């Protein structure tokens, strides 16, 4: 057994922590010595309404267990206000867990502008807003841990979730770029794609599966990624039901045409099997490694 990982002296913001996965993350950090900002506007699953009760209740739970926490009831789209709560209450921020989210599932041909915009706003813009407000503090102190929350719906695509999938994969792009920008300042940025029972999934999965998908099964990965001892950055992980795995990009070895311009759609068609063959596949992780492929001559 290793020693318990602790967050004493660390200030952790968990967005959307009034329920579901975020609540579990907040309770875990609170129980392990962190000072926690429990953000949640307490709205409905599709983004309507608002109540301070959800976040307040989690703060009470953390305090009742001997931990330290404050509530913030702003939308993540007001990221500066979320981070201001951390600065006002605890003087700094060390960890941001971007978890808040809603769903508005609808097939693309029926999707309204509002269905699209609201999802981009809360998931992608909200994640950016909170992270951007915390960023100068993390840079200044030369330390930060950021955990983003994406979804298999974004990674793999899913019927009826174009708005959600686009926003969720946008978050992966944001995380990848921030991992590079944060590297020299000891700011690590990782992304999880959870799968767990919550109000978000209770109508999606069958009961037998929901019983296995405990929301508290996500927090151990978040805890590790948020810890100072964790060197991982720019990672993407699937997590749920006691399972954790890392994802990466895979690129086929590809086909190099003789010249750089003298080939036609017919040549592409002729070589399609080779272009899409994953024998000898590569796993680029940076822009530079991406460029090596086009610089190759054979
Ligand atoms: P949930 O609906 O139980 O919790 C989301 C929380 O975010 C709610 O408490 C809600 O009030 C809060 N929230 C919504 N909009 C907000 C805003 N603008 N500002 C602040 N708080 C806001 O859902 P769940 O399942 O706990 O989801 C957590 C995260 O995990 C979400 O980002 C979701 O997209 C993601 N996720 C969950 C999966 C699952 O299987 N449960 C699958 C893939 C991704």
Automatic annotation (TrEMBL):
InterPro entries linked: KR_dom, NAD(P)-bd_dom_sf, Peroxisomal_Beta-Oxidation, Sc_DH/Rdtase_CS, SDR_fam
Q: Locate the Ketoreductase domain: which residues?
A: 10-203
Instruction: Give TM regions.
Output: none
Q: Which PROSITE patterns match?
A: ADH_SHORT
Origin: domain of life: Bacteria
Q: What is its EC number?
A: 1.1.1.-
Keyword vocabulary terms for this entry: Oxidoreductase
One GO MF term: oxidoreductase activity
Instruction: Tell me the PANTHER family matching this sequence.
Output: DEHYDROGENASES, SHORT CHAIN, SCP2 DOMAIN-CONTAINING PROTEIN
Which protein family is it in?
Belongs to the short-chain dehydrogenases/reductases (SDR) family.
The protein, known as? SDR family oxidoreductase
Task: Give the species this sequence originates from.
Answer: Sphingomonas floccifaciens
């Amino acid at each position: 057994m290793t020693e318990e990982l602790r967050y004493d002296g660390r200030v952790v913001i968990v967005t959307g922590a009034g329920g579901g996965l975020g609540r579990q993350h907040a309770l875990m950090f609170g129980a392990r010595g962190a000072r926690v900002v429990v953000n949640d506007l307490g709205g409905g699953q599709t983004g309507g309404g608002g109540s301070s009760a959800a976040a307040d209740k989690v703060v009470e739970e953390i305090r009742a267990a001997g931990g330290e926490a404050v509530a913030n009831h702003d939308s993540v789209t007001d990221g500066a206000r979320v981070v201001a709560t951390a600065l006002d209450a605890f003087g700094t921020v060390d960890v941001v867990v971007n978890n808040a989210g809603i769903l508005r599932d609808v097939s693309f041909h029926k999707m309204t502008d509002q269905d699209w915009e609201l999802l981009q706003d809360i998931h992608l813009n909200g994640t950016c807003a909170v992270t951007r407000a915390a960023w100068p503090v993390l840079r200044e102190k030369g330390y930060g841990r950021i955990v983003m929350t994406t979804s298999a719906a974004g990674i793999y695509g899913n019927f009826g979730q174009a708005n959600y999938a686009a926003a969720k994969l946008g978050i992966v792009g944001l995380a990848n770029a921030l991992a590079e920008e944060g590297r020299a300042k000891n700011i690590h940025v990782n992304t999880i794609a959870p799968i767990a029972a919550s109000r978000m999934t209770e109508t999606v999965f069958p009961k037998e599966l929901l019983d296995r998908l405990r929301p508290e099964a996500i927090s151990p990965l978040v805890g590790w990624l948020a810890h100072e001892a964790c060197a991982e950055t720019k990672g993407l992980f699937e997590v749920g039901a006691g399972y954790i795995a890392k994802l990466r990009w895979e690129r086929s070895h590809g086909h190099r045409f003789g010249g750089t311009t003298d080939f036609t759609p017919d040549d592409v068609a002729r070589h399609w099997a080779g272009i899409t063959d994953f024998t000898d596949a590569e796993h680029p992780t940076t822009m530079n490694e991406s460029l090596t492929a086009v610089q190759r001559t054979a």
